[in-house]
Design brief:
alpha+beta; 41% helix; three-stranded antiparallel beta sheet
Length: 162
């Protein structure tokens, strides 16, 4: 076994001291310490309950409170606690008969580092929102573009149409 260096000896000594103190406190000093019992008097409890009851009677429910309570009891259409994949499956079942927007990728322009795609007659760079609501352009290549539906998080690959 390798000889311990000074730092390791100090760490082990401190650990041993902490373990000894914990054992002393738990086993010896804990049983010797005074244990006090807290007793609640029935009169104090009754006055506390009456004060709370009076405060509740004074507070009237407003229309906002009723609205919040009814909205909280309703079933959620989109749960924020779902995983992304589960939500996408749920949305896919719900919108399986819906036709997607008509998107025509008709041109590609590259000037230096700048890449632009012509979609439905308009020029877009990667990351821009399309004129079709809910869609944005994710990436551009000469042969196809990748478009993301921000509502369903689905990706649509559209080939160039010349």
């Amino acid at each position: 076994m390798k000889k311990l260096n000074k730092r390791q000896i100090i760490i082990l000594a401190i650990t041993a001291l902490v373990a000894l103190y914990a054992a002393y406190d738990l086993l010896i000093a804990g049983s010797m310490g005074e244990k006090t019992k807290i007793e609640a008097k029935p009169a104090e409890i009754e006055s506390f309950v009456n004060a709370i009851r009076n405060d509740l009677v004074k507070t009237k429910t407003t229309s906002e409170d009723i609205y919040i309570a009814t909205r909280a009891e309703m079933e959620w259409s989109r749960s924020p606690f779902w995983e992304k994949t589960s939500y996408l499956e749920f949305v896919g079942k719900e919108t399986s008969g819906v036709v997607t927007a008509k998107i025509i990728y008709s041109g590609y322009v590259e000037a230096g580092r700048k890449k632009m795609a012509i979609i439905n007659g308009w020029e877009y760079e990667a990351g821009e929102s399309l004129d079709i609501e809910g869609y944005s352009l994710k990436s551009i290549s000469p042969s196809r573009v990748l478009i993301v539906n921000r509502n369903t998080f689905s990706e649509l690959s559209v080939p160039i149409q010349e």
